[in-house]
Design goal:
Shape: globular
Largest sheet: 7 strands, parallel
Number of helices: 18
Strand content: 15-25%
Structural class: alpha/beta
Number of strands: 13
Strand order of the largest sheet: 3-2-1-4-5-6-7
């Protein structure tokens, strides 16, 4: 049986990648021999009843034990607090990378800043994108260029894949993007999410005669358009007929609370923070509309959207990246350059006739059932892992050789043939593997 070492944050870590691992774990364990690896000593002890858990330090890792596995799987996302150590291990031992975000500028700026390695960060910008990118990186570090611009133009995704043997992504959009930037075996495998049996398609508990409930939840960074949502609600003529609940971690709760006060929304908006899973599930059951706006998107699929669909809940999304490919039958697109206008239009539309919006929620739940079964996702992942093991290391080697040739050229005569340089690069990498 295939043996995998699975590096991931584990619950109760406040990242949906921890939930991803738990959603997939039972189905994986029925198909392979798998051990979990985490840096968090305070992981949920009940996980140990399901699978073997190894607590590691990236500086003092038991490499002998790790090398006994068939393939290492690294779950990499955009938050350095959860993924710095995973990425550091991946740079020392090749494995299969599950890429949860396509744009990873935030991961690497977080890593290099936390370790006071500013010049290392700038050198990576130079290496992957050239001298202009290094200058822009310096200006970004000095606060003269916006994070949105740098994330869009210089995602640093290749740095996350520098030592990978294969890569998995969760959206067709990301799959197409990855095919253009690496030589690796690449697979699109949807996020897993089982359709709950406890939520009814025809639930009427969420409809109130006087107040309609709006909800936004998750890890609410600056890209989640929370300020725009508040402004839209504040300027909507019939705002008193709605209330908004904010669940999860807000990047600056004090600032958002001040905006709520400034917009005179204190009676309509509540910041609930992180709550037990059961409480969030109940809140989603009772909601009428969900906000899942994102810009810039990090390019990957949204587990929050899958949870929204599991409750047959209509939702507003920004049609970029993965969301752009979703059927308008399953989500309600909000144009980035017309956010206030579109939100007002749909809030009014819901008040006038909620039935079409409820139909969107039901269609989303149907899509969830058809495309996101944990059993199917686990089967696809194990099959792809076996393909990666059979594949030669040539794709990774070729990528590294192509990056090495320009460096060797600096130290050779101008008329040195390219074939000779490629041979030297190949020799270097065979010696270092």
């Amino acid at each position: 049986m295939l043996k995998l070492s699975w590096f991931s944050p584990l619950l109760p870590a406040k990242t949906d990648i921890a939930h991803y691992t738990m959603r997939l774990l039972p189905a994986l364990l029925s198909r392979c021999d798998l051990e979990l690896w985490t840096t968090d000593k305070d992981f949920d002890p009940t996980i140990s009843q399901i699978a073997k858990v190894n607590v590691y330090d990236s500086e003092q890792l038991d490499w002998a034990k790790l090398c006994q596995t068939d393939l290492i799987v690294y779950n990499i996302g955009n938050n350095h607090e959860f993924h710095q150590d995973i990425w550091l291990v991946s740079q020392r031992c090749p494995g299969l990378v599950i890429l949860h975000d396509l744009k990873l500028q935030g991961l690497f700026t977080g890593i290099y800043r936390s370790n006071q390695q500013r010049e290392d960060y700038l050198n990576k910008m130079l290496y992957y994108y050239g001298a202009d990118a290094q200058i822009i990186g310096r200006l970004f570090e000095e606060g003269q260029i916006s994070e949105k611009f740098v994330v869009e133009k210089f995602p640093l995704t290749p740095l996350a894949l520098a030592n990978a043997r294969g890569v998995v992504c969760h959206s067709r959009y990301a799959y197409q993007q990855l095919l253009g930037i690496n030589y690796l075996p690449t697979s699109y495998i949807p996020l897993p999410y089982a359709v709950p049996t406890g939520h009814s398609h025809s639930s009427t508990s969420r409809i109130s005669e006087t107040i309609h409930r709006l909800i936004v939840f998750g890890y609410l960074g600056t890209n989640r358009r929370l300020e725009v949502i508040l402004e839209a609600l504040a300027s909507f003529p019939r705002r008193s007929e709605f209330c908004l609940d904010i669940y999860g971690q807000v990047w600056d709760a004090d600032y958002i609370q001040q905006r709520i006060q400034d917009l005179e929304l204190t009676e309509l908006v509540q910041i609930r923070g992180f709550v037990p899973e059961e409480e969030l599930e109940q809140a989603l059951d009772q909601a009428d509309l969900a906000f899942n706006l994102r810009y810039p998107t990090m390019g990957e699929a949204s587990a929050s959207q899958l949870r929204i669909w599991s409750h047959s809940l209509p939702s507003f999304v920004t049609p970029v990246g993965w969301y752009e490919g979703l059927s308008p039958d399953t989500v309600i697109p909000i144009r980035l350059d017309h956010e206030l206008e579109d939100i007002h239009y749909h809030l009014q539309g819901y008040l006038d006739n909620p039935d079409p919006y409820k139909s969107v929620g039901i269609a989303g739940r149907n899509r969830l059932a058809e495309h996101h079964s944990p059993e199917t996702c686990a089967e696809q992942l194990v099959e792809f892992a076996q393909e990666v093991l059979k594949a030669p290391l040539f794709p990774t080697m070729q990528y590294l050789m192509d990056r090495t040739v320009p460096e060797i050229r600096k130290w050779t005569p101008e008329n040195c043939p390219t074939a000779t340089l490629q041979g030297l690069a190949k020799a270097v990498h065979f010696l270092t593997y």
